[in-house]
Amino acid sequence: MQHHMAKPAFITFTGIDSEKIIPGMRYLSALYPIEWGVLIDPARTGLPLFPSHAIVEQLRHSGLRLSAHVCGVPAADIAAGGFPSLDLRGFSRIQINHGFQGSTPEQIAHCKLYAASCGVRPALQCQQGFPDADGVDWLYDVSFGTGVRPSRWIALNRKNPFCGYSGGLNAATVGSLLESLDVPSGARFWIDMESGIRTEGVFDLQKCGAVCETVYGPAHGERLWA
């Protein structure tokens, strides 16, 4: 029996930390619906996965669709009601990675207000079912960038029509996730991956291309990134 594979609205490839791959990112973005995730934590700026200020500056002017994945002290500050000074020019979403235990109603409200004040859409992680709280894009994530795959993929929330999935995804595993999803009529979702698109610690556009071909099919009739 042939399984139907659900198609995400877009794929987020997270962990951009080099300006040298911007031309390749533009090429892939012209073929497939992609959001590029940029990890931001002032305490780790310039380390692998966390690009330098100069690289972020080039990314924000690249014309690419970007999301800021804020970690560390600024993320905790936002969730607590603070307004840390982050330059989000060029970004369309902010994912606030403030902890590993989900978000309280107060934290959700704080994150929504911060995002609104910056003119971007907020995203938060959840580890159980997708919350009913609206005004937030919810990402099911038990991996936190470690490549751990969840024991099961939770169902999309019919009350919250836009949610995402992350955890252990790569070109070899993404197909089974998409075949297993029961997507309600009218619902949309995205998928996010980080460790599954790196090779020996380096962001690998070849792997991004292979994921896109698996999910959406070859752009020019033949696989370029198999």
Summarize the entry for a quick read:
This is Phosphoribosylanthranilate isomerase. The protein has 6 helices and 10 strands, in the order βαβαβαβαβββαβββα.
Cα(first) to Cα(last) distance is: 24 Å
**Radius of gyration based on Cα positions:** 17 Å
CATH architecture: Alpha-Beta Barrel
* Averaged pLDDT: 89
The tally of helices reads 6
Provide the number of structural domains. Answer: 1
- Derived structural class: alpha/beta
Here the CATH topology equals: TIM Barrel
The ordered H/E elements are EHEHEHEHEEEHEEEH
> What level of helicity do the residues show?
25-40%
User: How many strand units?
Assistant: 10
Query: Mind telling me the CATH superfamily name?
Result: Aldolase class I
Q: Would you identify the regions where 5 or more consecutive residues have pLDDT less than 50?
A: none
Q: Report strand order across the widest sheet.
A: 1-2-3-4-5-6-7-8
* Highest CATH level, the class: Alpha Beta
Main beta sheet: 8 strands, parallel, barrel
Q: Beta-strand percentage?
A: 15-25%
Shape: globular
Could you explain the architecture of this structure?
With 226 residues, this protein is an alpha/beta fold. The chain has a single domain (10-216), classed as TIM Barrel (Alpha-Beta Barrel), CATH 3.20.20. The protein is built from 6 helices and 10 strands, in the order βαβαβαβαβββαβββα. The protein has an 8-stranded parallel barrel, surrounded by 4 helices.
Topology:
Blueprint: E1 10-14, H1 22-31, E2 34-40, H2 53-60, E3 66-70, H3 72-79, E4 93-96, H4 105-118, E5 121-126, E6 137-140, E7 162-166, H5 174-180, E8 188-193, E9 198-199, E10 202-203, H6 205-216
Parallel strand pairs: 1-2, 1-8, 2-3, 3-4, 4-5, 5-6, 6-7, 7-8
Antiparallel strand pairs: 9-10
